[in-house]
Amino acid sequence: MVSILPKPMIIKADEDEVLDIELEEDFIKANERMADLNRRTFDRYGVKVVDFMGSIGSGKTSIIERLVEVLKGRYKVGVIAGDTTTAIDAERVSRHGVPSLQINTGRECHLDAPLVRKASKKLLREGVNLILIENVGNLICPAEFPLGAHKRVVVVSVTEGEYMIKKKQDIFRAAQVGVINKKDMAGYMDVDTNQLVKDALDANPKMKVVVTSAKKGEGINELVNALEL
Length: 229
Ligand SMILES: Nc1nc2c(ncn2[C@@H]2O[C@H](COP(=O)(O)OP(=O)(O)OP(=O)(O)O)[C@@H](O)[C@H]2O)c(=O)[nH]1
Ligand SMILES: [Mg+2]
Hints:
By secondary structure, the protein is of the alpha/beta class. The chain has a single domain, classed as 3-Layer(aba) Sandwich (Rossmann fold), CATH 3.40.50.300. It is built from 9 helices and 7 strands. It has a 7-stranded parallel sheet, with helices on both faces. The chain is globular and about 60 Å long. It starts with 20 loop residues before the first helix and ends with a helix. Bound molecules: guanosine-5'-triphosphate (GTP) and magnesium ion (MG).
């Protein structure tokens, strides 16, 4: 027989139940040191850097492609695309006539500051003054690994449903700009974009939140403004 609990029980992991906690802390601290170094290098070269985090398929590459089209007349743009295995995203971006590099992270679910340092050095040699970084599609891991970017963006789409932001607040706290993408799909999904904006602001009241449709090119200028570009 299946018994239904009046209220679901929540089991939380205590710190000593989380494996490799010291190792993990070392990684995180080492990454933060490298991210600081990256930031100093970017500032020395006068390069602005934006890190796009967000779930798989939320529209990060599509948004970057739109931004490249709007910004390539004003900036010398370069793109670093992170993915576990393929070069599809860098290939998509390079069709817009800007230098783009792919980083394959294998089994890692986020980019890290040393990888970005290596890639950004190549772009600096190309003379870029704006680097757009697409992080690996994931709403958890990238939050803990800053890359040295001046702005961090988190992209979610309405097709992920109404609970996504409420469940993954940490990544919203780590970002300065939130993007709710695929607004053209809101009606089909029966999702209220205003509620998603509210959820993002509940997670991080200091955040600027922009609603976009990368497919239709809507909200892209608002995103440029939110990014102060
Ligand atoms: N309807 C609709 N589709 C979109 C929109 N933005 C992106 N898509 C589609 O969603 C799919 C995923 O978009 P991508 O830009 O590749 O998403 P991504 O976040 O870069 O995905 P990963 O790199 O795999 O994590 C593609 O089929 C896009 O055409 C949008 O605003 N509306
Ligand atoms: Mg992508």
